[in-house]
């Protein structure tokens, strides 16, 4: 078969346990030890974990007390986001030595389109090796990379040889690679979706590929079309140097559980002030306000409302957040509140869906 869309040379670079690795690099006494960034306070949550800590089941977003229970020798360190941003900028500068088509996903990962690059190097695989070597030389940190014809496959591939490795999926390998791939490793398939797919008899890419568009639409809604295409190697999203956020938010975890809406109003006001600051800094406004509530048992609830006009001021944000808070009774005491704004004035028209009939030209040097 032939792909009848342009094949690109995409690299996905993902730093290895970035925050924790920065701490271990800056504090040599932490090297080789289980380290968690954040999570040290009574109500703290782990932001990142070193590979030594991950062996004990410590993961990001895990409550600190659970992490400590899993790994009694765990060392908690306070996050230093200014430092992480500084190192991230060093890494990003390396990317720009090769291409201006760099799309950061966060401080520790990015997509690069090197189809045409500043070095005139036809091999994306060799470019990825050079970039990883430069990152190690200049920052002392290791990175992993995935290389393939589109962002989706490059993202999946970067996780295969972690840490400090890379994986290239050549054009002629794409279909067989996706067919053999465990459905849990498909980017965009979370735990809940994976469980649903298992119940439908979908365990691998091959199983997914056997399902019709109608079947996937029926069971997964809009995501069904995405799954139908990516398992066939079709993902036409370009590397966007200026990635547009889909939402902006702020949240707070409390040192003590809050049991009454009255006690939450002051917290919501502080959150609204922070959200307004972020919106004004980015010159963004939006229409859809979402209130995030995390209860003491860690269950999560969201309540949303879409307004007929764009807002960015804290007064209007807070007014709507209060309305959402009182929308229905709380089911338990609350440990976290958050407010986010979506349906932003930065959003563009959605990409045109790729063609369903595809064919592949295999002569493409990686």
From TrEMBL:
<dbReference type="InterPro" id="IPR017961">
    <property type="entry name" value="DNA_pol_Y-fam_little_finger"/>
</dbReference>
<dbReference type="InterPro" id="IPR022880">
    <property type="entry name" value="DNApol_IV"/>
</dbReference>
<dbReference type="InterPro" id="IPR050116">
    <property type="entry name" value="DNA_polymerase-Y"/>
</dbReference>
<keyword id="KW-0479">Metal-binding</keyword>
<feature type="site" description="Substrate discrimination">
    <location>
        <position position="19"/>
    </location>
</feature>
<dbReference type="InterPro" id="IPR036775">
    <property type="entry name" value="DNA_pol_Y-fam_lit_finger_sf"/>
</dbReference>
<dbReference type="GO" id="GO:0009432">
    <property type="term" value="P:SOS response"/>
</dbReference>
<keyword id="KW-0808">Transferase</keyword>
<comment type="subunit">
    <text>Monomer.</text>
</comment>
<dbReference type="GO" id="GO:0003887">
    <property type="term" value="F:DNA-directed DNA polymerase activity"/>
</dbReference>
<comment type="function">
    <text>Poorly processive, error-prone DNA polymerase involved in untargeted mutagenesis. Copies undamaged DNA at stalled replication forks, which arise in vivo from mismatched or misaligned primer ends. These misaligned primers can be extended by PolIV. Exhibits no 3'-5' exonuclease (proofreading) activity. May be involved in translesional synthesis, in conjunction with the beta clamp from PolIII.</text>
</comment>
<dbReference type="GO" id="GO:0006261">
    <property type="term" value="P:DNA-templated DNA replication"/>
</dbReference>
<feature type="binding site">
    <location>
        <position position="14"/>
    </location>
    <ligand>
        <name>Mg(2+)</name>
    </ligand>
</feature>
<dbReference type="InterPro" id="IPR001126">
    <property type="entry name" value="UmuC"/>
</dbReference>
<dbReference type="GO" id="GO:0003684">
    <property type="term" value="F:damaged DNA binding"/>
</dbReference>
<keyword id="KW-0238">DNA-binding</keyword>
<dbReference type="InterPro" id="IPR043502">
    <property type="entry name" value="DNA/RNA_pol_sf"/>
</dbReference>
<keyword id="KW-0234">DNA repair</keyword>
<dbReference type="GO" id="GO:0042276">
    <property type="term" value="P:error-prone translesion synthesis"/>
</dbReference>
<dbReference type="GO" id="GO:0005829">
    <property type="term" value="C:cytosol"/>
</dbReference>
<keyword id="KW-0548">Nucleotidyltransferase</keyword>
<dbReference type="InterPro" id="IPR024728">
    <property type="entry name" value="PolY_HhH_motif"/>
</dbReference>
<keyword id="KW-0460">Magnesium</keyword>
<feature type="binding site">
    <location>
        <position position="108"/>
    </location>
    <ligand>
        <name>Mg(2+)</name>
    </ligand>
</feature>
<dbReference type="GO" id="GO:0000287">
    <property type="term" value="F:magnesium ion binding"/>
</dbReference>
<dbReference type="Pfam" id="PF00817">
    <property type="entry name" value="IMS"/>
</dbReference>
<keyword id="KW-0963">Cytoplasm</keyword>
<dbReference type="InterPro" id="IPR043128">
    <property type="entry name" value="Rev_trsase/Diguanyl_cyclase"/>
</dbReference>
<keyword id="KW-0235">DNA replication</keyword>
<dbReference type="GO" id="GO:0006281">
    <property type="term" value="P:DNA repair"/>
</dbReference>
<dbReference type="Pfam" id="PF11799">
    <property type="entry name" value="IMS_C"/>
</dbReference>
<dbReference type="Pfam" id="PF11798">
    <property type="entry name" value="IMS_HHH"/>
</dbReference>
<comment type="similarity">
    <text>Belongs to the DNA polymerase type-Y family.</text>
</comment>
<feature type="domain" description="UmuC">
    <location>
        <begin position="10"/>
        <end position="190"/>
    </location>
</feature>
<feature type="active site">
    <location>
        <position position="109"/>
    </location>
</feature>
<protein>
    <recommendedName>
        <fullName>DNA polymerase IV</fullName>
        <ecNumber>2.7.7.7</ecNumber>
    </recommendedName>
</protein>
<keyword id="KW-0239">DNA-directed DNA polymerase</keyword>
<keyword id="KW-0227">DNA damage</keyword>
<keyword id="KW-0515">Mutator protein</keyword>
């Amino acid at each position: 078969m032939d792909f009848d869309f342009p094949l690109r040379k995409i690299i996905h670079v993902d730093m290895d346990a970035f925050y924790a690795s920065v701490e271990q690099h800056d504090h040599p006494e932490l090297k080789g030890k289980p380290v968690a960034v954040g999570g040290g306070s009574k109500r703290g949550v782990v932001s990142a974990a070193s590979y030594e800590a991950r062996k004990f089941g410590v993961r990001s977003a895990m409550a600190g007390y659970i992490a400590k229970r899993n790994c009694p020798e765990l060392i908690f360190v306070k996050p230093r986001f200014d430092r992480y941003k500084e190192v991230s900028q060093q890494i990003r500068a390396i990317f720009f030595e090769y291409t201006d088509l760099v799309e950061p996903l966060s401080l520790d990962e990015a997509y690069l389109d090197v189809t045409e690059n500043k070095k005139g190097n036809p091999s994306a695989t060799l470019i990825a090796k050079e970039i990883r070597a430069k990152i190690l030389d200049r920052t002392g940190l290791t990175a992993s990379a995935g290389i393939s014809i589109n962002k989706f496959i490059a993202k999946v591939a970067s996780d295969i040889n972690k840490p400090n490795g890379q994986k290239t999926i050549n054009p002629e390998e794409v279909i067989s690679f996706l067919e053999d791939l465990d459905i849990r490793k498909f980017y965009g398939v979370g735990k809940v979706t994976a469980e649903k797919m298992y119940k439908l008899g979908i365990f691998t890419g091959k199983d997914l590929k056997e399902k019709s568009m109608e079947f996937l639409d029926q069971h997964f809604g809009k995501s069904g079309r995405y799954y139908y295409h990516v398992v066939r190697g079709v993902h036409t999203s370009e590397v966007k140097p200026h990635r547009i956020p889909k939402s902006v938010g702020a949240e707070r975890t409390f040192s003590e559980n809050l049991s009454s809406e009255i006690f939450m109003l002051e917290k919501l006001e502080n959150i609204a002030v922070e959200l307004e600051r972020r919106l004004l800094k980015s010159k963004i406004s939006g229409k859809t306000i979402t209130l995030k509530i995390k209860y003491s048992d860690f269950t999560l609830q969201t309540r949303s409302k879409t307004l007929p006009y764009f807002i960015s001021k804290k007064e209007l944000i807070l007014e709507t957040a209060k309305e959402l808070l009182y929308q229905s009774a709380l089911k338990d005491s609350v440990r976290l509140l958050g407010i986010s704004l979506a349906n932003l004035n930065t959003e563009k028209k959605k990409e045109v869906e790729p063609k369903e009939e595809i064919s592949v030209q295999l002569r493409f040097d990686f």
